[in-house]
Amino acid sequence: MSDAPEVNRGLVTPARVVIGLCLAAPFVAMLWVGSYSRTDPQFIGIPFFYWYQMLWVLISTLLTMTAYKLWQRDQRARASQKGGAAE
């Protein structure tokens, strides 16, 4: 009975929580239309509605890059723990 394979479930780590927040933030910001459905303040003649959304394109890129780098670091840490435990 003790020969059953061990099920390795994913752990909720602080890094993974940050990754989730980085990926969820742009969706929340864009789905909360009431926060940006206005024309003022304008930026170089562009209404707020448009430049706010374009700003989120840049912010989303940065957040996605951050999430990816955190994921890579998390995977390397897990691989080194797995390799260290096997030796």
Automatic annotation (TrEMBL):
Transmembrane helix is among the record's keywords: yes
Domain of life the protein comes from: Bacteria
Listed transmembrane segments: 17-37, 49-71
Stored InterPro entries: DUF3311
Pfam families: DUF3311 (PF11755)
Keyword Transmembrane helix included in the entry's annotation: yes
Keyword tags: Membrane, Transmembrane, Transmembrane helix
Matching PANTHER family: BSL5891 PROTEIN (PTHR40034)
Protein name as catalogued: DUF3311 domain-containing protein
